[in-house]
């Protein structure tokens, strides 16, 4: 997502003669929603590999965390622009509606990806690993909490 947004910013600011910015905006809208599908799919597949069967919870977490961070950054930028009185291309309400639209599209794609990842067969572990009981050595005196906690607390 980071590199897609970085490329979109580069193309948007490199635009000198033609106004490609709306097209870049719409293409990123679709690409980032596709990343939402991949996000939900990979989350569901990983949890299924480790034995978790609650795909709905994993899809909810995958659909909420990253988009909320991106929308929070957009709203913070809009708030700063509004407070400073700078000229905005789109109003706060328009940008908020676009963000909510993208969020719903991304969340839907994330849920669809999580469902698709859940209904596939679980990945078989290629070779089981034997467990070997090994003794655990004692911790050195200089790694004790009474010494490490104050040093890192001071740092």
Using the alpha-carbon principal axes, give the shape: extended
- Low-pLDDT parts are none
| Helix and strand composition category | mainly alpha
When the domains are counted, the total is 1
Order of helices and strands: HHHHH
Give the termini distance in whole angstroms. 34 Å
What layout of secondary structure does this protein have?
Elements: H1 2-14, H2 21-49, H3 55-84, H4 92-119, H5 145-154
Helix pairs in contact: 1-2, 2-3, 2-4, 3-4
Characteristic terms for this protein:
about 160 residues; mainly alpha; about 70% helix
Give a written overview of the molecule.
The protein is mostly helical and 155 residues long. The protein has one domain. Helices cover 71% and strands 0% of the residues. It contains five helices and no strands. Helix 2 (21-49) packs parallel to helix 4. It starts with a helix and ends with a helix. The relative contact order is 0.13.
In short:
Helix content is 71%, strand content 0%.
């Amino acid at each position: 997502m980071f590199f897609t947004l970085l490329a979109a910013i580069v193309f948007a600011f490199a635009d000198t003669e033609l106004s490609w910015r709306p097209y870049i905006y719409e293409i990123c809208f679709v690409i980032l929603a596709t990343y939402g599908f991949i996000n939900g799919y990979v989350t569901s597949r990983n949890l299924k590999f480790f034995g978790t069967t609650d795909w709905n919870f994993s899809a909810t977490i995958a659909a909420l965390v990253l988009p909320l961070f991106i929308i929070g950054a957009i709203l913070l930028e809009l708030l700063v622009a509004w407070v400073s009185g700078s000229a905005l291309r789109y109003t706060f309400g328009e940008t908020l509606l676009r963000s909510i639209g993208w969020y719903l599209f991304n969340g839907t794609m994330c849920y669809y990806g999580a469902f698709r990842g859940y209904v596939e067969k679980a990945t078989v572990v290629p070779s089981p690993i034997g467990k070997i009981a090994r003794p655990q050595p004692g911790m050195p005196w200089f790694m004790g909490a009474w010494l490490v906690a104050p040093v890192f607390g001071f740092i």
